[in-house]
Structure formats: structure tokens, C-alpha cells
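Running log. JK asked me to keep both predictions on one page so they can be read side by side. First protein, sequence followed by its C-alpha cells:
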Amino acid sequence: MNKLMPLTDRWDWQLLASCRYLGPQLFFGNEGESRDAKLGRERKAKEICALCPVRQPCQDHATHLAERYGVWGGTVELDRRPNMPRADPARTQMGSGQTPLRVSTSHPRPGRHARREGTT
């Protein structure tokens, strides 16, 4: 009988991370953050990552999970995008004999009700 065991070796690298006690505000932006503020924040975060002993495992983690937000291992989402796993084409393509869904042009938009005859 197999007993499930925690896979701490996949996560233990985080214990050595330079950002461990810094909080997320430097590594993740705020809604409405200006472009200049974002670039400055990301630059500071990348400086911390540059000296981090677990930079590569952090970057690998974010790439493997296709992390879309934040600075991970000295990279931002645009840096990681070329290395992110692609969606499995077998899962995204329709099976044979299936046709794509089409929305009727006469169907009312969401939140709207179709007009009934005799009403204005």
C-alpha cells in the first residue's frame, strides 16, 4: 500500500529565498499602478532576485506553473512567456464530428430580454 507523503523537496527552496520576509508588495503590482512605478518596483525586485541563492528554482517554479503575475526568480511574465508550457493541442482541439458553437444573431444579448409581440 502506497502512503501519500509530502513532497517538501519541491517547496523547500522557498525557505532560503531572499524575499521570504519582504512581503508581496515589491514583487506584485497594485491595481492602477503607473507604468513608471511598475518598472521601478520590478527593477528593485530583480535586484533582490539577482543575489538570491534560490533564483533558478524560483524561476523554474514560475515557468512550470505558467505564473502570470509577479517577479519570480528575477523574471516577469513577459520574460517567462517563451519558456512556459504550451497548452496541450489534443485538449484544445475539438474531436472529430464536432462543430463549433455558434451564437444566433437573433438571440438577445445577456441581460436583455427578447421583445414579445404586442409589447413596446
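And the second, directly underneath as requested:
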Amino acid sequence: MFDPNIFDNLKVGIENVVYDLDNLDEVIHVIGRVDLLDMAVMSRSFSLRFELVQQPMTSAEIILETGLRDLATEILEISEGQPGCELKLRFYKHIADVSRECPVISQIVEEIWKPELRPVQTISYTYGNDSPQLHNTIELRFPRKINEEQMGDIQNMIEFMLRTLGELNRM
């Protein structure tokens, strides 16, 4: 019989909360889903990207990843290992003025997510456009691996993501 691993359990937990907000509560729209198994390095990756209903200016993405070492530690029940998954959150926003908007974005994110989770902002644009539009990818990386013990935190985490989206849309 199939015994789901940490990655699968967390993935299902995230899907349940996000798709309920999309289909039942109609608070968000899921605009992207990725579920990958990379056979070259035996890793798994899952992400869901969504935006608030009627507010497509900013979107958010939850990214869950695990690699061979964590999968093997769990499946082989290696006692000295602590299997888990990496969790990243990303927010995508168009901006016009880097020097003015990026500090405001940092402040918004740090107020919601605590100063320990410092946002990393990556600015990009398409070369050759007459008036290039700046794309800001705001990433939060959790400092440690997560496992099923954090399953109860998924609902709160997504509520924080919704709050962040709302604040980023208001600026």
C-alpha cells in the first residue's frame, strides 16, 4: 500500500486550503499550478500561483520543494536524518520607481511576516521596450525545513499571503 511522504502530505494540505479559497470562498483565482518530478536529480517541486479576485495587479506563489536526500531519509527511515521540505513564498508585482517602491514593499512584508523573514526583491524588465515595465519578484525563504508538524500552520500562512497581496495591491 502507498504511504504518502512528507512532500505529498504538505502538498495536499496546501492544495486543500488554496482550492477552497478559489472554488468555495471565491476569494482568489488560481492562475498557475506546477507539480514536477525531476528524474535527473530525483527531486520534487510543487507550486500554486494565485491572485485576489478582481485584483490581478499582484500575484502570490507557494513553492514546496524536496530533494533526494530528504526523500531517501524518509523512505529508508534513516534515524540520523531529519527529512523535510523547503518552502518559499513569492509575490509578483509591477512597479514604476525602484528607489521609492522597493523600500515600501520591504516594510509591508516585514510588518506582516516578522523581521526574521527578510524579503529578497529581484527587479527585471524586457530589453527593447520603449517604456520598459519593471517586474518585482519578492521572495520569502523560510530558514528551516518544514514537515507534517507544520501542517496546522498552512491556513495561517495563506491568510498572511492574502493580507500581503491586499497590502501590495493598495500601494
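Observation for JK regarding the second prediction: Strands lie at 28-38, 43-52, 55-66, 86-95, 120-124, 134-141.
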